């Protein structure tokens, strides 16, 4: 990994292991690096413990999405989904359990997979891809169950509403579709475009943003309740306790209240951030990690300040 | 009194001799007891009248020694009591620490609950904002009632107009049918008149 490559590296996705002690991060070179959180957070951590314990090349293209399920790590890159076993990876044994490719219409151009999310109710994986469709893969049998069509441009992000078992998808065409029925098309900031790049739900509420400003919607009534005055396009957002955390273009994590005001903006080291993950799997390593257009991943032990950075 | 070992050098000899000279009796209380002992033996062995204040001096030194002993005993007692005190404080502090830990966990749970309540309240606020934008229910009901009434009125009027139309239609129908009948009758009459006339003419022509 030469210095030029490190300079051009972007971290696109992160996922915590089911035990909560390891973090997997995928970058634009198709590599996945495994970091040991327990080593990095322990009182006698050195700079070496902020380096990955394992780095391997998972795909040809960038790894845009990582999802942990059931003791397995699912990674998406260049049109295919691969599964790796967490216990194998922790023992540094790199071996893909399986690799699946959704049925694409044309075999000439392989669209990338932008986002994956797990639907725990029926143990399936929802994949949003560059071919404007949302594919659903049944994890038990390993076959693609169905395809949701309807977007006229590629799908950036998917999210599931567990209780009602609905799938929300947002795409480049500016539309947010629920189960591929059109729900909202809106364009609040025409200078950035109308693409929706971040979508997250909290059963009754939905956050979406991207080109248009980040806004909070009430899903039952399908009405927007508040808009957040954040400059720049937001790439990922999450609900955390009573706040909303959003990352995007600026070099900071924004903490916002549900009412629509921005409470705080915490600066980070990458210039623009792509991914945000909260470790809910472990009680002693409850950290927030953000990664973006640099080879560093910032770790927050207290949400108000950056504790340290892991680097590829 | 340590005896100088003859194997060591003369320097050590000198040092030891000097120490014994200066510090031969020991320091402080030890020295006092030693001095007292020496003076007592001197007093016992002295024949004849001793000096004037000799006994006084010895009694004084004795008193000093007793005083010093009493002081040390008290200090020892005090130390024992201090130790007990510290033990008590130590257990107290340990208890405080555990109770503070418990309080901390309680407070953490409280804060989680409070955060959830706050989040719910914010959600209510957001929904309330949306609801405010819609018009009041009473107003809408009133509007609905007014519209209903209007609708009823209009349908009433329509019924009236329909009934009138029917009536007129029927009247005109009656009129028209009467006219037609009259026409028929007149035509019939004319026809029968013509027939009569044409029957008379051939009789005249045939003469």
TrEMBL record, chain A:
SMART domains attached to this UniProt entry:
WD40
Q: Which domain of life is it from?
A: Eukaryota
User: Which key words tag this protein in UniProt?
Assistant: WD repeat
Give GO BP annotations, semicolon-separated. Answer: mRNA export from nucleus
Q: Which Pfam families match?
A: WD40 (PF00400)
One GO cellular component term: transcription export complex
Answer yes or no on keyword Repeat.
Answer: no
Please list which residues make up the signal peptide: none
Q: Where are the WD repeats?
A: 148-178
InterPro entries reported in the protein's UniProt record: THOC6 (IPR042626), WD40/YVTN_repeat-like_dom_sf (IPR015943), WD40_repeat_dom_sf (IPR036322), WD40_rpt (IPR001680)
Q: Which family does it belong to?
A: Belongs to the WD repeat THOC6 family.
Q: Which PANTHER family match?
A: THO COMPLEX SUBUNIT 6 HOMOLOG
What is the recorded name of this protein? THO complex subunit 6-like
Q: Which organism is it from?
A: Scophthalmus maximus (Turbot)
Coding gene? thoc6
TrEMBL record, chain B:
Q: Which UniProt keywords apply?
A: Coiled coil, Nucleus
A single cellular component GO annotation? THO complex part of transcription export complex
Its GO biological process annotations read: mRNA export from nucleus; mRNA processing
Taking the first listed entry, what is the main subcellular location of this protein, grouped into a coarse class?
Answer: nucleus
Q: Where is this region: Disordered?
A: 185-207
Q: Which Pfam families match?
A: THOC7 (PF05615)
Keyword check for tRNA processing: no
- The name on file for this protein is Putative THO complex subunit 7-like isoform 2
Species assigned in the record:
Scophthalmus maximus
The gene name reads THOC7
């Amino acid at each position: 990994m030469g210095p030029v490559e490190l300079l051009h590296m972007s971290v696109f996705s992160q996922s915590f292991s089911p035990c909560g002690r390891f973090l997997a991060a995928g970058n634009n070179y198709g590599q996945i690096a495994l970091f040991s959180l327990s080593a990095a957070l322990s009182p006698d951590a050195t700079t070496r413990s902020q380096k990955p314990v394992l780095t391997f090349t998972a795909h040809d293209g960038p790894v845009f999405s990582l999802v942990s399920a059931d003791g397995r790590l699912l990674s998406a890159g260049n049109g295919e989904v691969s599964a790796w076993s967490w216990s194998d990876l922790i023992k540094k044994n790199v071996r893909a359990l399986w690799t699946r490719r959704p049925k694409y219409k044309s075999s000439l151009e392989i669209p990338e997979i932008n986002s994956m999310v797990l639907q725990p109710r029926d143990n399936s994986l929802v994949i949003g891809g560059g071919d404007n469709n949302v594919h659903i893969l049944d994890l038990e049998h390993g076959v693609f169950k169905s395809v949701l069509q309807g977007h006229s441009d590629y799908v950036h992000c998917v999210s599931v509403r567990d209780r009602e078992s609905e799938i929300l998808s947002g795409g480049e065409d500016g539309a947010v579709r629920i189960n591929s029925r059109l729900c909202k098309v809106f364009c609040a900031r025409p200078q950035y475009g109308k693409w929706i790049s971040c979508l997250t739900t909290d059963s009754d509420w939905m956050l979406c943003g991207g080109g248009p400003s980040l806004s909070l919607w009430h899903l039952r009534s399908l009405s927007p309740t508040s808009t957040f005055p954040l400059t720049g396009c937001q790439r990922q957002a999450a609900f955390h306790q009573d706040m909303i955390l959003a990352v995007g273009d600026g070099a900071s994590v924004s903490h916002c209240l549900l009412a629509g005001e921005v409470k705080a903006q915490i600066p980070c080291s990458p210039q623009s951030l792509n991914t945000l993950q909260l470790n809910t799997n472990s009680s002693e390593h409850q950290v927030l990690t953000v990664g973006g257009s640099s080879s560093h991943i910032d770790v927050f032990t207290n949400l108000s300040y950056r504790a340290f950075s892991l680097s590829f | 009194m340590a005896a100088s070992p003859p194997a060591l050098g003369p320097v050590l000899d000198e040092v030891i001799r000097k120490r014994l000279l200066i510090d031969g009796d020991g320091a402080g209380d030890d020295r006092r007891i030693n001095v007292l002992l020496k003076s007592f033996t001197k007093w016992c062995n002295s024949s004849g009248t001793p000096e004037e204040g000799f006994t006084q001096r010895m009694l004084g030194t004795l008193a000093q020694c007793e005083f010093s002993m009493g002081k040390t005993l008290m200090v020892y007692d005090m130390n024992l009591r201090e130790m007990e005190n510290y033990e008590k404080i130590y257990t107290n502090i340990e208890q405080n620490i555990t109770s503070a830990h418990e309080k901390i966990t309680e407070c953490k749970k409280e804060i989680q609950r409070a955060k959830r309540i706050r989040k719910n309240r914010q959600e209510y606020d957001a929904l309330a904002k949306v609801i405010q934008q819609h018009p009041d229910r009473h107003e809408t009901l009133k509007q609905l009632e007014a519209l209903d009434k209007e609708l009823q009125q209009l349908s009433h009027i329509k019924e009236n107009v329909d009934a009138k139309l029917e009536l007129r239609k029927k009247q005109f129908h009656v009129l028209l049918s009467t006219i037609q009948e009259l026409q028929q009758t007149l035509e019939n009459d004319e026809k029968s008149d013509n027939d009569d006339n044409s029957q008379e003419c051939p009789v005249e022509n045939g003469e």
